[in-house]
Amino acid sequence: MSSRTNKPHEIVERALELSRADGCVVIADEQSTANLRWAGNALTTNGVTRTRTLTVIATVDGKEGTASGVVSRAAVTVDELESLVRAAEAAARGAAPAEDAQPLVRDVPASPDFTDAPSETSSAVFADFAPALGESFARARAGGRELYGFANHELVSSYLGTSTGLRLRHDQPNGTLELNAKSPDRTRSAWAGRSTRDFKDVDPAALDAELAVRLGWAERKHDLPAGRYETLLPPTAVADLLIYQMWSASGRDAFEGRTVFSKPGGETRTRLGEKLTELPLTLRSDPNEPGLESAPFVLAHSSGGDSSVFDNGLPLTATEWMREGELSNLLTSRHSAGLTGLPVAPGIDNLILDGGDDRSLEEMVANTERGLLLTCLWYIREVDPATLLLTGLTRDGVYLVENGEVTGEVNNFRFNESPVDLLGRATEAGRTEKTLPREWSDWFTRAAMPALRVPDFNMSSVSRGV
Fold first, then answer.
1. Which residue, among 288, 14, 305, has the nearest Cα to 297 in the 3D structure?
2. Which of 94, 105, 209, 419 could form an S-S bond across to 241 if both were Cys, CB 3.0 to 4.6 Å?
């Protein structure tokens, strides 16, 4: 019997029926993907895939506390369902009490579409995009440049059921487009990326035109040494830095004195309430943000840090992490909130920075006497968690701006910066717009950021990458 013979909600209900544990959480994820890939101005591959993953979380009460066991498997057949449930129960009985144990969430209204069939994507999502891409290939060929890249669309329907009566469902579309334009001799390269829910708002012709301009800029070269430069960070680069900051904003770790958000001494132990920047910027997440919608309840397939399987189904609401420059929340689960006295603030799968002056990146360039304009960041790694110092590389175009105009391309650099420190030194934020974080696009795609002007961005060494 195929794993797809039974509807996802039926699989969830059957797993709950089979459970002999004190508590049980079942998550069925139905995933479908469609993709296109191209190189040298020609499509190379396309395909559609579908998968089902089932996660069973068993909880077992004991004298010393409640233990949990988590087992996930793909392509589980109905005949294999009981063995999966038993494996989760065995894992729970063999485990020590879970530090993050909490009563399972209850009393959340059921999703009205819980029993509906999963949503699926298909190659039809590219019905308008693919012909437009083909036209871009022809323009690029005529203009002496080559286009490389890929488009991916994913739709995940997640069904959550618990022994406490929760029956919740969320459909998450996620589309990404990455496009590289290269000169035939491969000495010049430019990149653009977009995040989309359905590819209806993606214009390949506009992206190709943008990349053609950047390749033109790169015809003139400047060599610059390492140093601190006034730098314009485009929204994609800002997103990559602030997403890492968000991932590092653990309330418990800050409370215990281990992060950049820790406060030495005092009763609060965290920097909540401190000004991180004089700019009136607000960093926030909202599951209902138009165009960036994400799950409105916790979906936790494992516990770790400030995420807990015991919080599955907990409703999520709009959360401000920084309000008009002031640190206002840190990540917590119900467990870590109880340990620290902080509000319960689970992670939400989008991130928005707004409050800038609404200037476009082009207008910010026009107001630059001399500085650097980045395309994107790459290979970002943490150097020091105490300051959140990060290092990484620039890629696919760093340009010199002089007297309001781009005068050519400069060499790439390795940078060393802390996003928290960088926010404190930024002197201008532009218009907030949806963007694709290039470094983290495999894990986090729903972001809206402004460009930032930093007067002394630290380019620590020269990189010879393209």
1. 288
2. 419
